Amino acid sequence: MPLIASYNIRKAIAADRRRRPERIIEVLHEIGADIVVLQEADRRFGTRASALPLNMLAEHSDYRHVPFDMRPASIGWHGNAMLVRPNVTIERCQPIHVPTLEPRGAILADLEIAGAPLRVVGMHLDLSGLWRRRQAHAILAELNHQPDQRPTLLCGDLNEWSKGSGCLRDFGQHHAPVALGPSFHARRPVGRLDRMFVSDRISVESCGVHRTPLTRTASDHLPIWAKFEID
């Protein structure tokens, strides 16, 4: 049964305010997901290099990054990245351009896992509710313009504090929300900022927020995860 996780890694800056990518990799080992969608995976300034050094990722895990190739030193697009294990086939991928006041974006990858097609969208939406809704509309419009329709899972840091309005209502029109708990702030989680939605033909068997001593200090968000089946 495939397992997917979504994690805002805060540029690998731990609770001690030091960049500790090795802790993020340890968290990934704890979760053991087949597919990991990351937010804030790149540094903010300069070349916007990956906060997870590729050599460290290769030496200490079996993950490879989905090659969006938007910037030479980056592993994603505006901090959004996707990692997959060897049992996942990457068929195609693309960035999704969204309207924004600050650097934001989304990513899309068509994958195959356990012989089944799967489309995964990762996102990190704006702090402004108005711009979040505009970004949600752009992402949904891009999904409608894809060359084919396949089982789809959307996930990421939506920055939405409401229980079901705003962009949550937009995504929920055609995708079912996954029942996840609060994931922010990692030390004392009260906000359900990290979310997942699934389309038809995806059945969520179990899901949760990965809360351990390590995740309470590795980032300011806790990872979320879901095990699912594709019908």
3D structure, described in words:
Helix content is about 20%, strand content about 30%. The model has no long low-confidence stretch (mean pLDDT about 95). The longest helix has 16 residues. Strands 1, 2, 3, 4, 5, 12 and 13 form a seven-stranded mixed sheet that branches. Strands 6-7-8-9-11-10 form a six-stranded mixed sheet. It has a single domain, classed as Deoxyribonuclease I, Chain A (4-Layer Sandwich), CATH 3.60.10.10. By secondary structure, it is an alpha+beta fold.
Class by helix and strand content?
alpha+beta
What's the end-to-end separation, in Å? Answer: 12 Å
* Strand tally: 13
Strand content: 25-35%
What's the layout of helices and strands?
Elements: E1 3-8, H1 21-31, E2 35-39, H2 54-60, E3 64-65, E4 76-77, E5 80-84, E6 88-96, E7 105-113, E8 116-124, H3 129-144, E9 152-157, H4 167-172, E10 176-177, E11 194-198, E12 202-209, H5 215-218, E13 224-230
Parallel strand pairs: 1-2, 8-9
Antiparallel strand pairs: 1-13, 2-5, 3-5, 4-5, 6-7, 7-8, 9-11, 10-11, 12-13
